[in-house]
Each structure stands twice: as structure tokens, then as C-alpha cells.
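User: Please run a holo structure prediction.
Assistant: Happy to. Please share the sequence and the ligand.
User: Here you go; the ligand is 2'-deoxycytidine-5'-monophosphate.
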Amino acid sequence: MGFVVAIDGPAGTGKGTVTKIIAEDLGLVYIDTGAMYRCVALEAMRKNIEPENSREMLEMLDNMQIDFKKNGEIQEVWLNGENVTTQIRTREIDVTVDRYSALKCARDKMTPLQRKMGENSNVVGEGRDVGTVVFPDADVKIYLDCSLEERANRRYKQYLEKGIETTYEAVLENIKQRYKAETEREIAPLRQAEDAILVDSTKMTIEEVVAEIERVIKEKIK
Ligand code: DC
């Protein structure tokens, strides 16, 4: 196992953006665990498989191949040989993915894959349970938090930039529901690991968050 950084926190904290920059700056392999659950949701929706249908879910999961490929600055997500980088970031997936990511069968499949990615490289993993379940012995654990309103605000702006039509209120409601689902689910709920360092990004810029996390990492490497 190489050097492992775990960054967890709710949706809309800037985790994805921040983790990408840190991976680039420090030469770490970026494990986007959320993208993997998004692939599960996308594949299930395409095949019309409801999360309750465990037999079909298991079969589907057994036949899923997820790969991350670097293409310049972008880390592409490939599902069964197809580039699904944009398809997994639609509003439809945003409002459905929690039903799939809460499934034991999905987590039983994804967690070992995530661990495998950390086997021979120095990595930064980002998600909800990276520091608590996937890499409980991570060298550095960060819990990135942010106020609900600011998280909704950031997500709303992202949708506008992508040309997705919605309202701030609808985004706020979705962010609230997701937070409830993620923190209250039975398996691998979102929580701050006891040994994680809390970074509240509500009033911080992306650059400030990156600088703070890199400071913690460099301190640990010393
Ligand atoms: O971070 P994200 O929005 O891309 O996450 C997508 C979904 O996957 C969301 O339902 C939270 C879930 N998730 C999870 O359960 N565990 C992780 N380690 C990462 C994401």
C-alpha cells in the first residue's frame, strides 16, 4: 500500500474539484469513488433494473468494468468500454444515485475495486466512506464540510454552467435529501472519521481549501 489520502464529505463541498487539483499537484492517483456509484446507477437505469431487484443487480454488477483514464487534464470514466464521463453527471443520475449507492451489493463490489487501485500507487480517494471503510488506515484523512445553502449554491451554478435547467430551490431540496440519505443509511454512512481533520469550506475559495489540505499532507510526509 502506498501513501493514501482520504477526502470525504457531503455533495457540493468542492471535494471533486479540490481532489483533482491535489492529485495533479502531488502526483497522486485520483480515485473518484462517487463516479463508480454513478456508473452503477447509469447502468441500472439503462437496463431498467430497480435497486430492489437483487438478482438482476448482482448479475449486472458482475458484468461491469469501470476504468479511469487520463486524457490531458480530464480524468475520464469508462464503463464497459464506453466513455461515460458526461453521462454520469446528469441531474437524472444526481436524483437517483443514492438509491443505488446505499445497496450492500453495490458497495461489496466497489469497495474492493477501490482498495485495489490503492495497492501499488500513492492515491487520493474522494467520497463518503474513503477514510472510514475503504482505507481506514489512510495516512491523511480530511472531512470537507460546508453549509447546506452554500453547497446548494455551488451545485446550482454547476448546473447553470452545464446548461441544465433547474431552480435553486430544487437543488437545495435535492442536496438536503441526499445528505439525509447518505448520513442515515445503514451501510457505510457518511460521517467524519475520528482521526479525520475537519476543513469547513463555506467561506473558503478552492485555492484556500487546496492549500490547507496540501499543507496537512506535506506536514505528514515530513
Ligand atoms: O460524490 P458523488 O456525488 O459523485 O457521489 C455519487 C453517489 O455515490 C452519491 O449517492 C454518494 C455515493 N457515494 C458513496 O456512497 N460512497 C462514496 N465513497 C462515494 C459516493
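The chain has a mean pLDDT of 95.
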